[in-house]
Structures are given as structure tokens and as C-alpha cells.
């Protein structure tokens, strides 16, 4: 029961703050709600006993990326953004598209209902600590793709540094 | 009231902002206000706004007799009141054409040099505090306290001493003056090494001061900078040697100079100056001559018409008095040449290209006292 | 579902909840007394007495300060973003307290032993930066904004180094659980500070920088930015920031203690020869109690005498509590409390020592300038931390795969890492720009 | 202590006695240069009544000067060097304000007076040109001081020497602030010490010590008067 309460709490929080992210006019407040949404998602991971995902979500998304957002936002002149009309006239079209997309998702889900993996999760005690599991799959099973991805990121990083250096 | 209320938030260009430092800011040593134009944290220009402490000392002087005005000068550079008093008394003596007796001159020199140490030591503490070293301040204040105690024993006042009178001294040296000064000299000689061990070789200190606020000799002279700031730029000039006054011609001391003219050099110059002052004090207590302490001046001072400019080497730089007399008991005009004001003028040149943190270090290294800047 | 079932379902939450309540209730007091100790230490180093007025030797000063802060006017600047200004300190203090929940104060006192414990502490305490950045932004003041920007840049920069230093120790332990890390040090028979001294040094520097303490207290450098991000705050909101700062200090000290200083382990816990050290905790408390009783009659006011005596009594009682398990029969309940009680004592002692180092450094060094701090972080500390991780990896490989002894393999890697440090210093010296502020690549200059 | 020293002071001969004793050499000097504006314009408005009506001839005072330095100046600038005298062993040149800039250049470059120690003014309201603009100079090369004066009338413009000695920037601002002397060619001539909106120039002799800019005080300090 407690698990359910927690799940609905986190889920509700996540959806609510996600809505607030796009509706708030103040960018900094949007950023705060973004952080809240991410934290709520992390909470859902925690109820699923995926501790590693939970903490990665916090460290990377909340502690890393959102902080950078806030950092950038603070350097921008907010007064300008506040006085601009943020919703343009195409919201009808957007609503239509959203409905279509939503319908697609619903149809896809209902069609593939039988093949969805819905059985009860294994009891917590039998799970291995999932940090180790993640490490095992990253550094053994998927070693090559992982390293390739790392190199790709490194290249992107160096590229960014070189480009910003040239500007100086 | 939160001090941020003083911050004007004028956004100029894409990234040039104006930061209003002061007049209520912990590191502007009083009520200096510096308007900084910043590019990020880099200073691209600055403007000093001063006058918050302006009391119209020069105007007051025209409405006081010569003796009455003497205590007022103590309130300009209140960190070095004795030096101010010496300059004023000697200027008036020059105007009158009298001279203080030898004994008075040596005692004056002794007290002025003690005052120089007190001023420098106070500077060292606050400068270190500006750069983030908390502890030296308290050690420095301890030493300053010893000097102030000597002043208190001598004339009853600690800060605004009014220790000298026109024509000599009012008070005879108290009995243990020599002993007190000797004890202080012995302690301080050891302790100044201790302070240097805290800072001189410290990597952070060197990193924060070396290459900061460079003023080369030509610029320094053009900007009229005097005192330790000038000497750190490589100009070996000290009024005590160039145009000896009081009893400086009787003492042996050297003028410390450095080449680079940065904050670190100014620090070293002042440290060395303290040692030299100590050396002068040690010589002075050995040879205080006997004799009267008051020259032949009357109760009513009426200098003959004319004018005089006399300057002394105050701890901050050249402190000059330009006095015009019309033959009455009141000065017709007293102009004070404040070293702090003129040294502060070089600030703009020194801070350009540095970071906000360096501005604090540079204000500190100029050793300004706002009471003297604004008068 | 009856009441019994509910109680049964909630039972595992009760003890942690109790601990959490204790921490939330006690922490402000502890933080207050850390401030008092800091002031006393500072005073001692600066040839003066420090607070002496409120209570004997100023012992009640923190309470007076707290009362003052509580009843102070709460000023919210007119042009501030009210909502964020109001909430920012809460974020900071919540994050700091949350991080404390995974810290094991002795083998029994811990709110939650997560198997990702250490990551949890690091990740959650990093959230406190939100409070600082948002508070600085919401104040709508230049000093606050600059302070917040510096703070954000500084935290992000030094977190990488701290993380790397932590990784070094984790390689030894092979677990992220805080309890498991201490256990590993017990099993290895050596605190990790001796195996990875450079890792400890890196963590020490990075943790000072992360908690914005001198000589890295850029964000609140009072001589430059007045009070940095806290400039516009007053009263209780300001106190919350202060609480967060001191809680963060406790958190980083706890991490350092857990990772490098053997957590709650007694010195030489593996050697029966040194069992006499078990007697140290009660004797120490007894000594403090004795000193209090000795000083009590010399207090000027009666209330102060009584207060001093009460402190003495408290310490005496603590001494008794600590001594009881030592003298009780080996199989009694009292004796079984020994690891918990003494563990807590040793842990807190180590945390205090670490905090003392924090204070000591603060009162000794001048402040770094922002760009120097960034250069130190990115060009010296981070490369060194990476070298340290690699060194430890090599050492472990030598030890485990090639069967070298623990001592020679880590002596070798430590020397190698020291060589890297020397080289980095040398290179840094060569490239140090004479005039600063000319290169614009430091993060804060963006 | 105080009593002691007063007693000690008592035997000191009073002021009046001294000039009489030392008065022989100077009356000719004081009378010898009636053209010197500083000396005759001395009786100021604010001075209290002087007890001994004719001040006896002073022991020290201005003496006309005609040494090598002055000769060089006269050779170079001719009539622009209005006067030269020495007072208390300090050399003073009175120059024409129009040529102040050229004379300053020459002083800095040829005579090596590199340091502008001080720049100020003195107000003699009863004179035709009421202000003395005073430049105190020092030469590192010669270890000598020199004072250059220029007589300036109310509302006249003086060339700014800020380009010669950069330090004059603030000093001229202060002079403007206190006396209202306008410097032509000054890049930033505004008040230095007083608020920019301040009315009046306090160091003029007709600005009484009790006078202040009450409008400013009322508006900015919220009080009726600062006195």
C-alpha cells in the first residue's frame, strides 16, 4: 500500500511539475519545476528499487544539467523574456498534433497489450545490488559500444573546446 | 539596510555591468565608493566617488587661530595623527621663523616614527584581511596597541593625540619612555619576522599580490604618487632624506625601494620601512638631548605676512601644508596636501584589466584613509 | 487491515524516523556549537579570548545567537523574486540534512544504509547548490549574483576532483555502502588514508572548496562581495544558509572520516595490544568533567557556576555511559552496546579533528582569487585526482593479480603519483600568466 | 603636567617683543614690492580686529628673487613671468595665466620639475583678480621645490595642466569644487568632494563658515539645516 501511495505521489508530482515547466512564464521558476519533475522521476526509480538509476538521475540531471540551465538563465536578461508573448497563435495546431500523437500511443499500447511484460517484480531481497549489475553490463557485455560512446563524447567535448577557443 | 540597496544595477551592453563598490563595503576602508565597469569580473574602468567624509577642514582653519587649528589636523589621517601634527607644527614654525629646540625635535622624531610603525602595522593587518588572511590583523593590532599605550602615557590620548605644539612640545617625556620604547622595539623586531613568515613566502599571498596593480616609476611620478607606493616603483625618494626635517638628519637609516611597483613590492617596502623606523626609534632613545622642550614662541601667534609650504613624510606619503598668513592670529589659508587623495587618484590606472578581487587588494595596497582623502 | 498490521508495516520505518527527528532537532544546536568552537579556535590563534559574555566561557553564545536570529526582522528586498528568495535557503538546508541521513555515526546510528550510500551523499549534497544559485539570483543584487555564479562554478569544478578522490578509495572497498567501506578498512587492517594519502589530500582540498570555506570562500568573500549570495538575506533565512553551510561541513567531514579515516574504528582496532585505547573515551570525558568542576567555582556569577557544573555533570555522565560497557560482564546487554557507543565516539572525534583542520586552514591562509582557484581545480587537482585513481588501480592490480605486498605496491604508486603532482606544479608554474584576468576561459568569466 | 608647562612657557617673551627685536632688516622688503598682489591685499574680510594696528616689520617675508632659474624663465617667457620672489627660502614665480600651459611644459621638461606636488588656490576677494592659482612643484633631479602662481579673476578660464601632470586631474577638480575656477581643456571638470548639485564654492572668502547649501541639505538629508 505504501508503495502505491508513494508511486502516485511521485507520479502526480512529476506530471504536475512538468506542466508547470511549460506554463510558467518565469524561466527560473520553470527551471525549478524541471528539477522537481526530475526528482520525482528519481523517486519513482527508488520505489522500483533501482537505486543506481535513482542516484544517477539526481547527480546527472538534477545536479548537473539543470544547474547548468539555471546558470545560463541567470546570465540572460530575463526581463526581456517576461514581456514577450510566449504562446503563439498556433496552439490549435499543436493541440491537434498532440491529440494525434496521443491517439497513436494509445493504439500502439492496446495493440501490443498481450506482449507487454506485466508480471510482478522479483522480491527485493533476491535482487543483486544493481550498481554492480550496471557495471557488469557496461564493462563486460557492452564494453565496445560503451567505449565508443565515450570516445564520441570526448570528441564532442574537445570540439567544443576548440571552437570556443578560436573565438577568443 | 542591506548593503545591496546601494548597488545600481545598470545593464550597459551585452556583458558590461556597473558594480557599485561602496560607500558601504567592507573593503573600501571607510566610505570610498568606486564605480567599476566590469566585463564579467574583469575591470575595464573605474571611477572614484569621494567626499562622503568631507568636513571642510581647510575652511575651518581660516576661522581658528594657529593653535586652535592644530587638533583638527589629527582628524585627517586618524591612523597617523602624530605625523599630521608634526607637519602642521613645523609648517607654522617655519612661517613664524622659529625652530623647536633639539630635545623636542628628537622626541618628535621618535614619536613620529612610532606612529609610522603603528600606521604601517594597521595597514598590514587590514590589507591582509582584504586578501582573506584573518589572523595577521589581530597580531598587528596587538603591536599597534603597544604603540598607542606609549602615546597615551605620553600625552593622554591614543588616536587623535595632538602630541606636539607649535614651537616644541607641551609635555616632557615621561620617565619610562625610553624603557617602553626599547621594550617595544625588542618585541616588535622579533614579531615582524613572524608576520613575514605568515605572508612573504605564502604561495597564495604571492599569487594574490605579485603582478597586481603595477605602477611603473614614470607613471607613478606623473600621477603624483608619493610615499611607499612611489618607492615600490623604484624611485628612491623620501622627504626625510631629501629635505630633512625634525631630527632626521641626525639618524642613520636607509630608504627601502623595490623595482616592480606591484602590490607585493609595496608590501615588502612597507615591511622594510617598519624595520627602518624601528632602527630610528632605537637610535632616538639613545640620544634624546637634554634641554628645553619649548621654543621661543608667544602665547599669541602672529606670523608675518607671507606663505610657506612644508611637507613631511607621513606614513602614506608626502603630507604637505601650504599656509598663507596675513599677519593676523588666524591663518589666511591652509591648504593640506593629502597623500591619500593623490595616491588614490592612481587607482583607476592600476585596476584596469584586473578582477574585482584585485580591486580590493589594490585599494588596500594604496593605504588610503578616507578621513584624509575627504578632509 | 487492523492496527497491528499497520504497526508491523511501519515498524521498519520507526527507528530511522526517530534518528531523522533527532538529527533535525539536534543539528542546529550542533552547528551553533561548531560556530562557537570555531570562534574560540580563531580567538586562540589570534591572541584573544573570543566569546566570553554569554554563559561561562561563552558557552551559551550559540543559543543567544539563535534567539537573536529568530526574532530579527525578515527582510525581503523589494525587487527580489519573492517566491524563489523565500524557498532557496530551504533547498540548501534540506539537501544538506538529507545527505546526512546516509552517514554512519558508529555502526548503529545511521538512518539508512543504502547500497549506493556514498553516491547518495555526494549526489544529494550537490543539490544544495540550487539553493545558493537561486538565492543569489533571486536577491536581484550584483554582489549576490556574482557570488552565486562563482559558487556554482566552484562547486561544479571541485565536485569532479572530489568525486575522483572518492573513486580511489572506493576501488579498495569495492562497495558504495558507507557501512561496507568501513568494514573493508577493518578487513584490510589499514585506513585508506595510509594506502592513498594523495587521494585524501585531494579530497581535503576539494571538500574545503566545495563547502565554500577559506581559503576558497570566493562566493562569500566578505572583502570583495560583501557576503556573496547571502548579501541580501537576514534573520532566520540567513541562519538557514548558515546551517546548511555547517551541515555541509559535517557531511564532507563524515565522508572523509568514513572513506579515509576508518569511520568508527578505533585506532589500531585490529591489534589487541592497543586495547587500552578503549579506555580513552571515558577518560577524556572524565577529564573534561574534572576541568569543568575545577573552573566552576571561579565563575563570577552564580548562574554561570551552576551552568559550568551542569556541563561537568553531563560530561561525567557521558564518561560513565562510555565506561559502563567496558566494565560490564562480557555477555550482558550493556557490554554489547560498546561498539555502538565507542564507535560513535571515535567517529565524532575524527569528524571534529577534520573540522578543526578546516578552521585551522581558514585562519592561516589568505584567500585565493577566483581564477587562481579555477586554475588550481582544473589544472592541478583534477589531473592529479585522475593520476591518483590510475595509481590506485595499478597498485590494486599489483597487489591482487601479481601478489605483491600491500605496502610495496602502494608505496610505489604513491611515489609515482607524487611525481605527477610535482610535474603538474612545475608545469603550472611555467604557464602561470603574469597578469591575470586576461584569459577568458574560466567558467566564472562567461 | 599642564600647569608645569604653562609655567615654563610664561617666561617666554610675548609675541610683540620678538618682531621688534628682529625687525630691522625687513621693512624695506615689505614696502619694496607694492606690486605684489598678495601682500597689499591682505586685510581679509573675516579677520578679527587686530590689536597692534600697524604690524611691525616681519622678520621673514617675501624678498624679490633673481637667480639663475628666474633668469632662465625670464629669458624664455619675458613678460609672462610677472614676478619672482622668495619667501621663507621658497622660490615663487608669478606667471601669466594665459601661458600657464607652456610654462608648465617648460618647467616639467626643461627644468625637470617632474612632480606636481600640489595644486590649489587662494582667494583674495578685494583684489581685481581675486584668485591665486598655486602649483607646488618638486624636482627629483635637483631636490628643489618651486611654486608657480597665476592670478585669475572670477569667471576666467585657466588652461588645465592635466596634460602635463596627470595628477592635476583631481587637484583641479578640487580647486573647481572649492573655488569655482574653471579649467579649460580639463576632461572631466566636475566637483570632487562635494555633491555635484551643490551650490556655491565653500573656500571663497565670501562663503561664510556657517553658510551651506540648504536646498541640497533639505532635499538629500531630510533636515532643515546641517548647522
Query: What integer is the average pLDDT of chain C?
Result: 79
**Cα separation of the termini of chain A:** 59 Å
End-to-end Cα distance of chain C:
60 Å
Instruction: List the total number of helices of chain C.
Output: 17
Low-confidence segments of chain A, given as residue ranges, are none
Shape of chain C: globular
Helix percentage of chain A = over 70%
Cα Rg of chain A: 21 Å
Helix-and-strand structural type of chain C? mainly alpha
CATH class of the largest domain in chain A: Mainly Alpha
Describe the sheet with the most strands of chain C: none
Question: What's the order of the H and E elements of chain C?
Answer: HHHHHHHHHHHHHHHHH
Mean pLDDT over the full residue set of chain A: 80
Strand content of chain A: under 5%
Q: How is this structure best described in words?
A:
The complex is a heterotetramer of chains A (168), B (375), C (446) and D (227). By secondary structure, chain A is an all-alpha fold. Chain A has helices spanning 2-23, 27-47, 51-75, 78-83, 91-111, 130-141, 143-167. Chain A folds into two domains: 1-100, NADH-ubiquinone/plastoquinone oxidoreductase chain 6, subunit NuoJ (Four Helix Bundle (Hemerythrin (Met), subunit A)), CATH 1.20.120; 128-168. Helices cover 79% and strands 0% of the residues of chain A. In chain A, helix 1 (2-23) runs antiparallel to helix 2 (27-47) and helix 2 (27-47) packs antiparallel against helix 3 (51-75). The radius of gyration of chain A is 21 Å and the shape is globular. The mean pLDDT of chain A is 80. Mean pLDDT of chain B is 84; it is low at 1-13. Chain B is globular and about 65 Å long. Chain B has helices at 57-61, 66-74, 81-96, 102-130, 135-155, 177-199, 203-209, 217-222, 228-232, 239-242, 263-286, 339-344, 347-351, 356-366, 370-374, and strands spanning 16-21, 33-39, 42-49, 164-165, 168-169, 306-314, 317-325, 333-337. Chain B has two domains: 3-49, no CATH class; 57-374, Cytochrome-c3 Hydrogenase, chain B, CATH 1.10.645. Chain B has 375 residues and is α+β, with helices and mostly antiparallel strands. Helices cover 71% and strands 0% of the residues of chain C. In chain C, helix 1 (3-45) packs across helix 2 and helix 2 crosses helix 11 (235-260). Chain C is built from 17 helices and no strands. By secondary structure, chain C is mainly α. The radius of gyration of chain C is 24 Å and the shape is globular. With 227 residues, chain D is an alpha/beta fold. Chain D has two domains: 60-193, NADH:ubiquinone oxidoreductase Nqo5 subunit (Beta Polymerase, domain 2, 2-Layer Sandwich); 195-227, no CATH class. Chain D has seven helices and eight strands; from the N terminus they run H-H-H-E-H-E-E-H-E-E-E-E-H-E-H. Chain D has helices at 2-9, 17-22, 27-32, 68-77, 100-109, 168-179, 214-221; strands at 63-64, 81-87, 90-95, 115-123, 131-139, 144-152, 157-159, 182-184. Chain D has a six-stranded mixed sheet. A two-stranded parallel sheet of chain D has the order 7-8. In chain D, strand 2 and strand 3 form a beta hairpin. The interface between A and C is medium-sized, with 27 and 33 residues.
Amino acid at each position: 500500500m505504501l508503495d502505491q501511495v508513494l508511486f502516485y505521489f511521485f507520479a502526480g508530482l512529476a506530471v504536475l511539475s512538468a506542466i508547470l515547466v511549460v506554463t510558467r512564464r518565469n524561466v527560473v521558476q520553470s527551471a525549478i519545476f524541471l528539477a522537481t519533475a526530475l526528482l520525482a522521476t528519481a523517486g519513482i526509480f527508488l520505489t522500483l528499487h533501482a537505486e543506481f538509476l535513482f542516484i544517477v538521475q539526481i547527480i546527472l540531471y538534477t545536479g548537473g544539467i539543470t544547474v547548468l540551465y539555471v546558470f545560463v538563465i541567470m546570465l540572460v536578461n530575463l526581463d526581456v523574456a517576461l514581456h514577450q508573448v510566449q504562446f503563439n497563435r498556433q496552439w490549435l495546431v499543436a493541440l491537434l498534433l498532440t491529440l494525434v500523437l496521443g491517439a497513436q500511443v494509445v493504439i500502439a499500447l492496446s495493440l501490443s497489450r498481450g506482449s507487454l511484460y506485466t508480471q510482478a517484480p522479483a522480491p527485493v531481497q533476491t535482487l543483486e545490488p544493481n550498481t554492480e549489475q550496471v557495471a557488469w553490463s557496461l564493462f563486460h557485455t557492452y564494453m565496445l559500444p560503451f567505449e565508443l560512446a565515450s570516445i564520441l563524447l570526448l570528441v564532442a567535448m574537445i570540439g567544443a573546446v576548440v571552437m570556443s577557443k578560436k573565438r577568443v | 539596510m542591506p548593503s545591496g540597496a546601494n548597488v545600481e544595477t545598470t545593464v550597459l551592453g551585452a556583458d558590461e555591468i556597473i558594480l557599485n563598490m561602496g560607500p558601504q563595503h567592507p573593503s573600501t576602508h571607510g566610505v570610498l565608493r568606486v564605480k567599476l565597469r566590469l566585463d564579467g569580473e574583469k575591470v575595464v574602468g573605474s571611477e572614484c566617488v569621494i567626499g562622503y567624509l568631507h568636513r571642510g577642514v581647510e575652511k575651518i582653519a581660516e576661522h581658528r587661530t594657529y593653535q586652535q587649528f592644530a587638533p583638527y589636523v589629527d582628524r585627517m589621517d586618524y591612523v597617523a595623527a602624530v605625523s599630521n601634527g608634526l607637519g602642521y607644527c613645523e609648517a607654522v614654525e617655519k612661517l613664524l621663523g622659529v625652530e623647536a629646540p633639539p630635545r623636542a625635535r628628537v622626541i618628535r622624531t621618535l614619536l613620529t616614527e612610532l606612529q609610522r610603525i603603528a600606521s604601517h602595522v594597521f595597514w598590514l593587518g587590514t590589507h591582509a584581511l582584504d586578501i582573506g588572511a584573518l589572523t595577521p590583523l589581530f597580531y598587528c593590532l596587538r603591536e599597534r596597541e603597544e604603540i598607542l599605550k606609549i602615546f597615551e602615557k605620553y600625552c593622554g590620548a591614543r588616536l587623535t593625540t595632538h602630541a606636539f605644539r607649535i614651537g616644541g612640545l607641551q609635555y616632557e617625556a615621561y620617565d619610562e619612555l625610553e624603557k617602553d620604547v626599547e621594550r617595544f622595539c625588542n618585541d616588535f623586531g622579533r614579531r615582524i619576522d613572524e608576520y613575514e613568515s605568515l605572508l612573504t613566502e605564502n604561495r597564495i599571498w604571492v599569487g594574490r599580490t605579485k603582478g597586481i596593480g603595477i605602477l611603473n616609476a614614470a607613471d607613478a611620478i606623473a600621477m603624483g604618487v608619493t610615499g611607499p607606493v612611489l618607492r615600490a616603483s623604484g624611485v628612491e625618494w623620501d622627504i626625510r632624506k631629501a629635505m630633512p626635517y625634525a631630527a632626521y638628519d641626525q639618524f642613520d637609516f636607509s630608504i627601502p625601494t623595490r623595482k616592480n611597483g606591484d602590490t607585493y613590492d609595496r608590501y615588502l617596502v612597507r615591511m622594510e620601512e617598519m624595520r627602518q623606523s624601528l632602527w630610528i626609534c632605537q637610535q632616538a632613545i639613545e640620544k634624546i638631548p637634554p634641554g628645553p622642550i619649548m621654543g621661543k614662541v608667544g602665547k599669541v601667534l602672529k606670523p608675518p605676512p607671507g606663505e610657506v609650504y612644508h611637507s613631511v613624510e607621513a606614513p602614506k606619503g608626502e603630507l604637505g601644508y601650504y599656509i598663507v598668513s596675513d599677519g593676523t592670529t588666524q591663518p589666511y589659508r591652509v591648504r593640506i596636501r593629502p597623500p591619500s587623495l593623490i595616491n588614490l587618484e592612481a587607482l583607476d590606472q592600476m585596476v584596469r584589466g584586473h578582477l574585482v578581487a584585485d580591486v580590493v587588494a589594490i585599494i588596500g595596497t594604496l593605504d588610503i584613509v578616507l578621513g584624509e582623502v575627504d578632509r | 487491515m487492523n492496527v497491528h498490521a499497520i504497526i508491523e508495516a511501519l515498524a521498519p520505518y520507526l527507528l530511522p524516523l526517530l534518528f531523522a527527528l533527532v538529527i533535525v532537532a539536534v543539528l542546529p544546536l550542533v552547528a551553533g556549537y561548531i560556530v562557537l568552537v570555531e570562534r574560540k579556535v580563531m580567538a586562540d590563534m589570534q591572541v584573544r579570548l573570543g566569546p566570553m559574555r554569554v554563559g561561562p566561557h561563552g558557552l551559551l553564545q550559540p543559543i543567544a545567537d539563535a534567539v537573536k536570529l529568530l526574532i530579527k526582522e525578515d527582510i525581503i528586498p523589494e525587487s527580489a523574486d519573492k517566491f524563489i528568495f523565500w524557498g532557496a535557503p530551504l533547498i540548501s538546508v534540506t539537501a544538506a540534512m538529507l545527505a546526512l541521513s546516509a552517514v554512519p555515526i558508529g555502526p548503529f546510528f545511521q538512518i539508512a544504509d543504502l547500497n549506493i550510500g556514498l553516491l547518495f551523499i555526494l549526489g544529494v549534497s550537490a543539490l544544495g547548490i540550487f539553493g545558493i544559485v537561486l538565492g543569489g539570483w533571486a536577491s536581484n543584487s550584483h554582489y549576490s549574483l556574482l557570488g552565486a555564479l562563482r559558487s556554482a562554478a566552484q562547486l561544479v569544478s571541485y565536485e569532479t576532483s572530489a568525486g575522483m578522490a572518492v573513486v580511489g578509495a572506493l576501488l579498495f572497498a569495492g562497495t558504495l555502502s558507507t557501512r561496507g567501506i568501513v568494514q573493508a578498512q577493518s578487513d584490510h587492517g589499514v585506513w585508506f588514508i595510509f594506502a592513498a594519502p594523495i587521494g585524501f589530500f585531494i579530497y581535503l582540498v576539494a571538500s574545503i572548496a566545495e563547502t565554500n570555506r577559506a581559503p576558497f570562500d570566493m562566493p562569500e568573500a566578505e572583502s570583495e562581495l560583501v557576503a556573496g549570495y547571502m548579501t541580501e538575506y537576514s534573520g532566520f533565512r540567513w541562519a538557514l544558509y548558515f546551517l546548511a553551510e555547517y551541515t555541509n561541513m559535517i557531511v564532507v567531514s563524515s565522508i572523509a572520516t568514513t572513506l579515509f579515516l576508518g569511520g568508527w574504528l578505533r585506532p589500531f582496532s585490529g591489534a589487541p595490544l592497543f586495547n587500552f585505547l578503549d579506555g580513552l573515551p571515558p577518560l577524556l570525558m572524565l577529564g573534561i568533567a574534572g576541568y569543568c568542576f575545577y573552573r566552576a567555582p571561579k565563575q563570577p556569577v552564580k548562574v554561570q557556576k551552576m551552568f559550568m557544573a551542569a556541563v561537568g555533570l553531563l560530561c561525567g555522565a557521558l564518561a560513565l555511559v562510555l565506561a559502563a560497557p567496558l566494565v560490564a560482564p562480557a555477555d550482558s546487554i550493556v557490554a554489547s552496546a560498546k561498539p555502538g557507543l565507542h564507535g560513535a565516539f571515535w567517529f565524532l572525534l575524527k569528524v571534529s579533528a577534520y573540522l578543526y583542520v578546516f578552521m585551522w586552514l581558514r585562519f592561516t591562509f589568505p584567500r585565493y582569487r577566483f581564477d587562481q582557484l579555477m586554475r588550481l581545480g582544473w589544472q592541478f587537482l583534477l589531473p592529479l585526482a585522475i593520476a591518483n585513481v590510475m595509481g590506485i588501480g595499478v597498485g590494486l592490480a599489483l597487489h591482487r593479480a601479481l601478489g605483491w605486498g600491500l605496502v610495496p605496491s602502494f608505496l610505489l604508486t604513491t611515489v609515482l603519483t607524487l611525481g605527477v603532482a610535482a610535474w603538474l606544479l612545475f608545469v603550472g608554474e611555467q604557464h602561470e600568466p603574469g597578469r591575470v584576468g586576461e584569459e577568458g576561459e574560466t567558467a566564472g568569466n562567461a | 603636567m599642564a600647569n608645569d608647562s604653562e609655567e615654563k612657557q610664561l617666561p617666554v617673551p610675548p609675541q610683540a617683543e620678538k618682531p621688534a627685536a628682529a625687525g630691522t632688516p625687513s621693512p624695506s622688503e615689505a614696502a619694496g614690492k607694492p606690486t605684489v598682489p598678495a601682500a597689499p591685499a591682505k586685510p581679509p574680510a573675516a579677520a578679527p580686529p587686530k590689536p597692534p594696528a600697524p604690524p611691525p616689520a616681519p622678520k621673514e617675508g617675501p624678498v624679490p628673487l633673481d637667480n639663475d632659474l628666474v633668469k632662465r624663465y625670464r629669458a624664455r617667457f619675458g613678460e609672462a613671468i610677472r614676478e619672482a620672489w622668495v619667501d621663507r627660502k621658497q622660490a615663487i614665480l608669478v606667471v601669466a595665466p594665459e601661458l600657464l600651459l607652456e610654462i608648465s611644459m617648460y618647467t616639467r621638461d626643461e627644468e625637470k620639475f617632474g612632480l606636481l606636488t600640489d595644486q590649489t588656490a587662494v582667494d583674495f576677494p578685494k583684489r581685481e583678480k581675486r584668485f591665486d592659482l598655486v602649483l607646488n612643484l618638486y624636482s627629483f633631479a635637483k631636490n628643489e621645490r618651486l611654486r608657480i602662481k597665476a592670478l585669475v579673476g572670477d569667471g576666467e578660464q585657466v588652461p588645465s595642466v592635466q596634460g602635463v601632470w596627470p595628477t592635476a586631474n583631481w587637484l583641479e577638480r578640487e580647486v573647481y569644487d572649492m573655488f569655482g575656477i574653471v579649467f579649460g581643456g580639463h576632461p572631466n571638470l566636475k566637483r570632487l568632494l562635494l555633491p555635484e548639485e551643490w551650490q556655491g564654492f565653500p573656500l571663497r572668502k565670501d562663503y561664510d563658515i556657517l553658510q551651506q547649501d540648504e536646498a541640497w541639505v533639505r532635499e538629500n538629508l531630510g533636515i532643515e539645516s546641517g548647522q
